[in-house]
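Reopening closed ticket. The problem is back. First fold of the pair:
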Amino acid sequence: MGITVTSIGMRGRTCVGALALVGALVVGGCGAQGLSGAMRSTPSVDQALATLASEHAQSVPDGALVTAGTLTVGINTKVETVPLYFANADGAISGLDVDLASALAEQMGLKVSFVSVSDPAAALGVTCDVVMNYSGTDAAGTVAPAGTDVTTACSYAETAPALFGKKLSGTLSGSDLTGKRVGVQAGSKSASALERTSLSLQSTGYNNLNDAFSALEGGDVDYVLCEAYPGAYLAQSHADVAMGGILGEPTPKGIAVLGTNADLRQGVSDAFSALRESGAYDLVRAHWVGSLPNLGAADQVKGVPTKGTPEAAANAAGALAGGQSASASTGTMGANEGASSAGNAGDGSTAGANAVS
């Protein structure tokens, strides 16, 4: 289990032009038909999107697009990566990826269409123009084959395990975590990342991030460690909860295009720059992840020893002498202790079946 989105509250309205219209696009199925065929929008929505797109001149030639006048956006709908992408029970899709892609299309003077993509390298230039949430692999971890000309037009998000706590100011250090209680989603990548450290703390595994954040709010744990973006999404519904830093270097997430499609690559890059300059990109981010910054080296928790280093050995010895857990792996990790798989890799990236926009 991951985030049960209903506990966070209704989040269907956004602040940027066509973004509010995206919620009207409904998924009818995710097979070979793709979302562009399965997602039926009402004529009024189609007209509104066309009107919004017409406010900007089309910035890329039709020859650079799969469908003339339309930015066809690929999303791996089989991997719900809250808050980047998720679908609710009736098929309506939401998320930062959906909103950002819609804003990009508007900026480029195009309509927008969404298709389900499982293999970015095979889909680009054939069934879609761009693929969201790409960092050399797609959301499911699918790696582009060697020699495939897939490149990133721009980076818009990052992934990294992040610590969240109450009434935090500034970035935490490793010493701040000594003797503290940390909640994680059992079996997640963040739980595995914590196990690779030798921090002297007590870790507790939870079935989902909602439970972990409830434990934080109730005082049962001092911090929650989870992927930064799902954590920031949840933190907005918990008083005084903020990010206190990340473990390790963040991995950027971007918008993939064919490297040979120079017109489209430049068009997406220019449109993204325009959204940043106008503040529209910040509005999209704020809607989904609040005040979370774009993550970088300055956000890393300093002084975190990893297993096998002299600092780790010293920490372990001191912790054992003091009766504390020597490392995260000695804490209560739950039934899936140490597991990390594509299906449960995002500690909260998998939305519940009753997710709502």
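Second fold of the pair, where the issue appears:
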Amino acid sequence: PTVFKETSKLCMYVLKICHISNHANVDKFEVIVPLVPVVADEGSDIVLPCKLSPQTSVIGMHVRWFRQKFSEYVYLYKDKMETVGSGYEGRASLFSTELEKGNVSLLLKEVKISDEGPYKCHVSRLESFAEPQLQLTVKRQGSVPLIEVEKLEKDSLKLRCSSQGWYPEPQMVWMDKKGRNITFTAEPARQQDKNSPFSVSSHLYMMRSSNEEVTCVVGPKDRTAHTAQLRT
């Protein structure tokens, strides 16, 4: 009986240790997001990747996507209930079939310029939590530039090139037929507010008798530019 009692105590002790060890392993996880910005065109649907490593089910965990303030969430999954934040109704969601695999990536539909900026992916359970940050960059392709003769004098021309609907702020340059930059003046790009696209324009003065072909080029540094040509 004494041997049986001691053996029972040992088994109970081993089971307790195993339970504690297993519980600790489950609580240890990393939350992984991209280090480079996620780039989206305005109006498109985009996925902000976020997953647990090692692969761990988040059923029963607290998952929260937010931007600046923890309380102002984009999307909340808590107590197995899902809630969409104000301003994101019908646009933000998780992939419900992926939650058991530790995938808590956020699907953001119909991306707006105002969506650009940092996002935090918060995952917590008991006293363990992580909330890495990723960056969303939004882009918008503007219009083909329009070249107009704004002022015509006896010996000279004043040309104006304009384009609208760009984000982020584009560059505009004039080039001659040899590809040389002949920009005379470029006005600062304009936007109605910080969440609106940019409009840009530039002027060029030329001699009427130059018989020169000029090109107006507009676009961001890292994307395909639009061009317009005019022969004077």
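Update: turned out to be a display glitch only; the data is intact. The chain has two domains: 30-139, 143-231. Helices lie at 2-27. Please close again.
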